[in-house]
Amino acid sequence: MTAMRFRQAIVTALSDEMESDERVILFGEDVAAAEGVFKTSEGLFDKFGPVRVRDTPISEMAFTGAAVGAAMMGMRPVIEIMFMEFLGVALDQLVTEGAKMHYLSKGEYTVPMVVRASCGAGLGFGTQHSQTLENWVAATPGLKVIEPSDAQSAYSLLRAAIQDENPVMFLESRILYAERGEVDTSLKMEIGKARVLQEGSDVTVVALGNMVNVARDAIADAKVSADLVDLATLVPWDRETVLNSVKKTGRLIVVEESPWSGGWGSEIISTATTEAFSALKCAPFRITAPDVPVPYNGTLEARYIPSAVHVSAALKAAVESNQVLKPWWITEGVSK
Amino acid sequence: MMTSLERRNALKGNELAWYERMLEIREFERRTNELFAAGLIRGTTHLCVGQEALDIGLATTLNPDDVLAATYRSHGVALAFGLSSHSVMAEIMGKATGCAGGVGGSMHMCDSTVGLLPTSAIIGGGMPIAVGAALAFQVQKKKNVGVALFGDAATNIGAFHESLNLAAIWKLPVIFVIDNNVYGEYTRIDLSTPIEDLHLRAASYAMPSIKVDGMDVYAVQASMQEAVDRARRGDGPTLVEAKTYRFSGHSRADQALYRPAGELEHWQKRDPILLTEQALIKKGILDQAKIEAMKTKIVNLVDSAITQAQADPEPSAKDMFSNVFKEMRK
């Protein structure tokens, strides 16, 4: 076990994969000489050189598509989209080209590529640099989506993503980059397997990325007996683990950082409601951000992100009286 | 039954085979149009009539282990690259025996044995992918090239400019081929683009460019050879602009009524098949009797491909679920 920051876990995973497989190449904006704006490629240019670690122009469409083409020709490219929003100008290449090549070639071509992107609010980057945007990519058959919650899962899942034969979107909660954690570099994690981080009897809390940490704090604060399920992989998500937990606890709360409407948590709730209906003691519900762009002002941004205080209140309402806590903007009367 | 690779290799150094394959493409498109009109094929189709010289020019200068990212105007290029009329027609008909197993359709042809990447139905979609293939060849120290084939209208989309820029700074073995057939969907090029010679855009990326008569298979080969040689030498990308003309409308629904009077007739005098025919007659290797025999052979070949494709099975429901993801070995 080694203590390292989340961003160092990313660097270590990249380095270990590049060392063990010469087909792995890394490119993106400022990933080489500058070692990544979030220092997620520290030392890699020096170690692996300019053929395998490359700075690109600010040209997401070209380099995302270049990853698709290189992957089809036998490489294992990892690209960095500095802020998840920047994928918007390149989405065609990932969603409509990359994710379709295996299908359209009767399986003759494979696209083993990883698109890393930082995401999420909390650092004052404003409306266009703070979204999570999982739902841009989560409804694309042919594309896997991963979002780790700590240094260990960042390390193990990034290695698994690079080894995967398919295109993988790897979302990194930006606010976690500086967080420290213990990492066992021999620990393998499987894509599509949720992590049950703590076990309890009264409620299942499902979360992703940094919301896992918010949920953990909330469970401690509320002093409830909860299963904390870190989904870790959003596509394909681990139905079995979630459903088994919900059948055991009878209650389900999903905590997600994306806006209220159209978020991935609705998918979890929908499946659990249909598949575990008879086990439910309380209506499953989500705690999300409101349907607004991410505000810059620090106080407002803190309110935008689901907080441990709010999740704790929701947990108590559910466990103690089978009540659904409405979103704060409704209870406070600031919005509908 | 020849494989795609055998059909591709059959073109090698055989001018009569180029001519014959051009006839096959023309006849294939004629029949495709008929089948659509008769309601026997669903969806849409984009014919390449008039552009056969470019498809053959590409297929005869590239090696089967080079790769091509082409577009939804895909039937001709697929046939030129070696796919059989049966394989392409079965795909258009959505049959299990089609080159994409029937899940692709008219716009998505593919065959990895001859380097035909799945053709893209997105304008500009294939260019970054060709760049990436070239990046792989460069890293792997292979002598192969990546080629992107796209229409004139694609030179106004961001992917074109981003791809040329990236290819230029990384000096990648990639060739960008503009099939300038004068129309972007229903709009004449002069209404959408302020310059007539699109290859001039390469200058912005300090990239060599070539303008070529896309109706002349020999001219296409010469310019492609120059670009391919440059790429294989490690001297980077080239932008080739082939001046062609789309004899049909954009897609099935388009009767091309917006064409100025006489434009089509003007270009038909430069029909690539006619030009090839004249060249071969002049060389003394083709005569009227041979032409008639070849045409009869091709009509029968395409006809039997259609009959076979029509009789072929539909894909099963299970096939729909195949190849969404590559399964991982445990």
From TrEMBL, chain A:
Domain Transketolase-like pyrimidine-binding positions: 4-179
Cofactor: thiamine diphosphate
Entry's Gene Ontology molecular function annotations: oxidoreductase activity
Gene3D superfamilies the UniProt entry points to: 3.40.50.920, 3.40.50.970
InterPro entries the record matches: THDP-binding, Transketo_C/PFOR_II, Transketolase-like_Pyr-bd, Transketolase_C
Record field: transmembrane: none
CDD domains on file: TPP_PYR_E1-PDHc-beta_like (cd07036)
Record keywords: Oxidoreductase, Thiamine pyrophosphate
The UniProt record lists the keyword Oxidoreductase: yes
Protein name: Unannotated protein
Organism, scientific name: freshwater metagenome
From TrEMBL, chain B:
GO molecular-function term, one example from the UniProt record: pyruvate dehydrogenase (acetyl-transferring) activity
Cofactor(s) for this UniProt protein: thiamine diphosphate
Residues spanning the membrane: none
Keyword entries, A-Z: Oxidoreductase, Thiamine pyrophosphate
Entry-linked SUPFAM superfamilies: Thiamin diphosphate-binding fold (THDP-binding)
Record-linked InterPro entries: DH_E1, PDH_E1_Alpha_Subunit, THDP-binding
The keyword Oxidoreductase belongs to this UniProt entry's keyword annotation: yes
Residue span, Dehydrogenase E1 component domain: 21-317
GO BP, sorted A to Z: pyruvate decarboxylation to acetyl-CoA
Protein name: Unannotated protein
Organism expressing this protein natively: freshwater metagenome
